Amino acid sequence: MAQFSMLSYLPRGSFIHKLTGTTKLCFFLMVSIAAMVSYDTRVLAVLLVLSLSLFKMSRLTFKDVKWVLWLAFVFLVLNNLFIYIFSPEYGVELYESRTVLFTLVGRYTI
After folding, report:
1. Domain parsing of the chain, residue ranges
2. pTM
3. Mean pLDDT of the chain
4. 3-state SS of the chain?
């Protein structure tokens, strides 16, 4: 029977795997905090490129992280849905701009 391991250690020969666990945890926390605090799309784009570059350098495959990415995607969709339901004007406040394609009901627009 195949062993299911969602968050197990996968040994590879990359420099990322040679870093200590503390170093990787500190970097992860710093990037996470920067992403949560920054509302600047340019900063988030730089963090995305940095993260994808590090993923490529780590020599992991999509198959290795499929479940984690799927869970992240589910929570991303839920988060965006609830932000839209409870605060549909949040994007307007954040970017100080509005482009209305059509109005749904009341203050809900697309």
Report:
1. 15-60
2. 0.72
3. 89
4. CCCCCCCCCCCCCCHHHHCCHHHHHHHHHHHHHHHHHCCCHHHHHHHHHHHHHHHHHCCCCHHHHHHHHHHHHHHHHHHHHHHHHHCCCHHHHHHCCCCCCCECCCCCEC
